[in-house]
Amino acid sequence: MTRQIGFIGIGNLGFHLAASLIKAGFNVTVHDLNREAAAPLLQRGASWADSPAEAARRCETVMTCLPSPEAVTRVVTGEDGILTALRRGGTWIDCSTNDLHQLKWLASLLDDRGIHCLEAPVTGGVHKAASGDITVLVGGPKAVFVAHLAIFQAIGGQVFHMGPLGSASVIKVITNMLAFIHLVAAGEALMLAKRGGLDLAQAFHAIKASSGNSFVHETESQVILNGSYNINFTMDLACKDLHFAHELGREFGVPLELAGLVEQTFIRARSQYGGSAYSSQVVKLLEDALGTDLRAPGFPATIVADS
Questions:
Q1: What is the mean pLDDT of residues 241-249?
Q2: Fold topology of 170-290
Q3: What is the pLDDT of residues 172-207, one digit of tens each?
Q4: How far apart are CA 194 and CA 71, in angstroms?
Q5: Assign residue 25 a region: left if phi > 0, alpha if psi is -120 to 50, beta otherwise?
């Protein structure tokens, strides 16, 4: 496996994935629409490419971590896209939360040119990516997965090969759908505690130690209670992922009644607070409606997963 990796998309998540690759000793060439975002990575030893094509010309493996299927498609098929420069025998790894069918279509274009494709969306939150402990979900040919396993072990903790290409897209949408449901539920639970006269800090710890606990409560409830809402994930991304879940439910014939209600709640929150607002601000709908905040002393401004 090559030690030369191109990485395109230095956002909240991609930055940390690329940083983990550099830390693990890979030679990383980065590209992003915002060069300033890559400055700390360049200081750590990464190289800059002026386009996705330039990154692909230098490297046998190119990774993408982008906010939408449209962005992924532009980076792969655009005038200066990966497809124009990645050599036969190379590999494209998409870490984006992508549309199942769009991903397969792009993979078919690459396959026609003898280029391998893996999907590797990650889950667990940006704070997990920063610590190199995020979960990596991989779909694609098993032999290609094994050949690139060191990359996945460098960027994350647990690594799951989910099956053929598209499998990881499905499970990633499922995990995000569950997280958004849990987030709305956590907000309602905390509001019940507040209106019931409980100390919210004590209620947080009691829930964490109970059968009602969830990973989302352990993490995102903290940024609700400290008032920062800082989850480094936006309303636009949440609505995109919930729409993916809705589409999968329709395609597979699964009625997603609870997810449908949560999707509408997030659409209202996006309308109220804007698409760039933190996704955790969905709970603010309830706070604003009742004129009751959910602040509690003693919670840090960033997530502490083992609090």
A1: 96
A2: N-(1-d-carboxylethyl)-l-norvaline Dehydrogenase; domain 2 (1.10.1040)
A3: 999 999 999 999 999 999 999 999 999 999 999 999
A4: 42
A5: left
